[in-house]
Amino acid sequence: MTDLYRRISTAFGPEVPGLLGFLALVLVVFGVFAPNFLTGANFGSIAFQLPELGLLTLAMLMPIISGGFNLAVIYTANMAGLTLAFVLNQYGGVDAGLWPFVIGVVLAIGVGALSGAVMGAVIAYVGAHPILVSLAMMIFLRGLGEFLTKGGDISGFPPWMATLGHGTLLGIPVPLILFLICAVLWHILLTHTRHGFSVRMIGSNIRAAAYSGVHTKRTLILIYTLSGVMCAIAGILMLSRFNSVRVGHGEALLLVTVLACFLGGVDPFGGFGRVLPVVIALIVLQVLSSGLNLLGANQHLSTAVWGLFLVGVMVLRWGAARINERRRKGS
Amino acid sequence: MPADAPPVDALRFSGIAKIFGGVKALDDVSFTVGAGEVHCLAGENGCGKSTLIKIVTGVYQPEPGARMQIFGQDYAQISPTQARKAGIAVIWQDLALFAEMTVAENIAFETMLGNRPRGVSYSRLRTAAASALARLDVDLDLDARLGDLPIAQRQIVAIARALVSDARLIFMDEPTASLTQSETDALLSVVRTLSARGVAVVFVSHRLAEVLEISSRVTVLRDGKLVGVYPTEGMTQSRLTELMTGSSFAQDVMARDPTGSDVLRVDDLSRAGEYEGVSFTLRGGEVLGLTGLIGAGRTELCHTLFGMTPADRGRISLNGRELNLSSNRDAVAEGIAYVSEDRLALGLIQPQSISDNTVLAVLRRITGGVGLLSGQKQEATVAHWMAELAVKIGKPADAVSTLSGGNQQRVVLAKWLATQPKVLLLDCPTVGVDVGARAGIFRIVRQLAEKGLAILLVSDEVPEVYMNADRVLHMAGGRIVAEWDPRRTGLSEMEAAVYA
Predict the structure, then answer these.
(1) Are B88 and B169 in contact (CB under 8 A)?
(2) Scanning A176, A322, B195, B271, which has the fewest C-beta atoms within 10 Å of its C-beta?
């Protein structure tokens, strides 16, 4: 058992075995007590719900590892969705073909990237705190979006777009495939590229990184640009799942993305964090919420359980660290 | 017995030892300070001065067998609270003051602390602060914000604070390190006032001139052992240097004539408020020392040579070609490396791994074919440099903060040597490195020079450059004011000039 623990933690990071244990525990408890929990339909619905939150969490992850924050993830996603919706509506709405979609997606990603690049540039060159900069961007985007949509919904998209939001490929939900591809890309980016390396170093000590020749300003701009791109992908997915865009869609997910990052062992002070444990944390959150739902609990109760879950994980990590320390002293 | 019995000594410690992880930081040291005496604790960096102060103030507990007496009272163990109650105060180099609070609040806030909550009486606070300043014969604006005061006046505030809590023995840790000569004189006069009022002062300093001027006796430590306690009357600077460093010192000057050609050439380099008209050449295989007081412009000059701040005027050329550095990345690409004086905050990324810190400046070199970092190349690079510089590490994945100061500095060197530099700028490379490890660092420096590297060795410790450099430049007030050959100019002459 301890051998398995050690092998998993050396291969995937020290957070992973604990989170897998949690996941197993949650699965067993709900499997026993919740009717219809261990069914394909339930896991199918989890698989459709997870990607939205997952993509937004990936967008939050990179800024947090760099010691920053991106409060604008939701509204950046909304704004990218709006961009795609505008383009589709311009080219026939329900009758729009593939090309308007492609152009719309490119523009949507461009809008996400622009929002991020502006934040990154202000953070890098003005030296303002990322929380303030992204707060400003969040409020700006919300106001702009509400102004453009007059506070309403935009809908009327070609029916085939539902495939993106609700379809399956080889039995796997398309949104899940999209999310997994993004997660793998993010993992490679963070662990195997110079950019990812610099992100971690900046997160621990930006001045020391600069003294060592890391181009900190460029790295910061790239971090928020990539975060914006990921928001845009989430926004496009949200559009095709709800078949409409409204500014404020998914607002409640903002702090859940932060919760998922910290559950996944990302250091709140920056410098450390990996994609895989965050993905597992996301799965745990989603399983918790769907299990409670099947038990007939209120949606608000499941939010409360999420909060308790984070507290529980922190207490357990503190305990594990103490045990480790004692063991090290003993040996 | 006469009416006025001899006053009790402020401090009587003997048999003090302290072992850290098998290393004896202090070995059977005794230390006595008379009441109202100005006593100096002298020794090189890492000789055990700080450890001794921390034992006296209860931060560390000595090894069993120590005898400790404070103002005549015996202690089996001293806690920080007991030490304060007994009247011992320490003024550390960082002063531990509140920049946002006023002078009066900084001096007297402790009178407002207590177990029970109660209102703060600003009039009592001001009275207490004013009387403490009066005892020092100093006049300061009680309402000035501390952060607005020059460092010298902040020191006065720290001393006054010690008086408010009835200190009868004050330790001052390198109090003059960042002061000008006139500020130093003012501080020394405050110290004399304290002494006249019966407060004993232990002065920790390696500036020998002021040590001899202010104190009546000096306790010299070397490598954790007591060398002796000497009256300062009749003591000379060179004799004291000998005591601090060991007698073999004078014969071991490393200087020789470098054979390489000019590598780095600096012409009339100036930057307003930092340095002025600096010119020198640095040859391949040469270790050029650069010494001077804190604030002389040494680090600022290094920053410009490393491309981090532009010069207003002047030229930097490398191998005959003029450089135009717009960032330190340009400097690294040209083959200039800079080991920062602040290893903790700037030299290394402390929480990150030894391995990642080592390759931080050479990410391009460990990138594989498809543009991804190669774990194999990283491992190989790290293994090579850890072996080359004999760094004692556990696992390369351990946080660099787990290493000792000396090994951390080797990791910094590894990081920069991996960039294959032509010029190595070493800014106070032995800060926070203990004596034994310092010798190791300088051995590496010498070996690197022998391989043809051009090295600028910056240090505020004159003996370091005297011992290890081929030539020594003296910087003061932003200018190069003298050039010495350690084979011709003695250490005491250099020190007299630098600390004048």
Answers:
(1) yes
(2) A322
Quote the minimal CA–CA distance from A63 to chain B in Å. Answer: 18
The CA radius of gyration of chain B, in Å to the nearest whole number, is 25
Query: What pLDDT, in 10s, does the model give residues A60-91?
Result: 999 999 999 999 999 999 999 999 999 998 88
Range B151-177 average pLDDT: 84
Contact assignment for B338 to A214 by CB distance below 8 Å: no
Distance (Å) from the alpha carbon of A224 to chain B's nearest alpha carbon: 21
Asked if B48 contacts B221 with a C-beta cutoff of 8 angstroms, the reply is: yes
Q: Return the percentage of chain B with pLDDT > 70, whole number.
A: 93
Residue B362's nearest CA partner among B421, B448, B304, B309 is B421
Q: What domains lie within chain B, and their CATH numbers?
A: 11-247 (3.40.50.300), 252-498 (3.40.50.300)
Q: In Å, how far is A322's CA from the nearest CA of chain B?
A: 17
Interface size, chain A vs chain B, as Cβ–Cβ contacts under 8 Å: 61
Rounded CA-CA distance A13/B378 in Å is 19
Tokens matching residue B337: 């490396």
Task: Give the per-residue pLDDT at A194.
Answer: 94
Q: Distance between CA B29 and CA B37 in Å, rounded?
A: 19
B contact test, residue of A190, A212, A272 with most B CBs within 10 A: A212
Record the pTM: 0.79
Measured between CA atoms, the residue of chain A closest to residue B332 is: A213
Q: Which of A204, A205, A212 minimises the CB distance to B361?
A: A212
Contact flag B328-A211 (C-beta cutoff 8 Å)? yes
Judging contacts by C-beta atoms under 8 Å, the chain A residues touching residue B345 are 205, 207-208
pLDDT digits (tens, 9 = 90+) for A16-42: 888 888 889 888 988 888 778 888 888
- Mutate: best of B309, B330, B350, B360, partner A, most A CBs <10 A: B360
Q: For B337-394, how does the pLDDT look when each residue is reduced to its tens digit (9 = 90+)?
A: 999 888 888 899 999 999 999 999 999 999 987 889 998 999 999 999 999 888 888 8
CA dihedral over A265, A266, A267, A272, signed as positive or negative: positive
- Distance CA(B258)–CA(A213), nearest Å, equals 30
Residue of A201, A210, A211 lying closest to B352 (CB–CB): A201
Residue B373: list chain A partners with CB under 8 A: 192-194, 197
* Residues B398-425, mean pLDDT to the nearest whole number: 90
ipTM > 0.90 (yes/no): no
All structural domains of chain A: 2-330 (1.10.3470)
Q: What is the DSSP string of A6-56?
A: HHHHHHH-TTHHHHHHHHHHHHHHHHHHSTTTTSHHHHHHHHHHHHHHHHH
Strand partners, A277: none
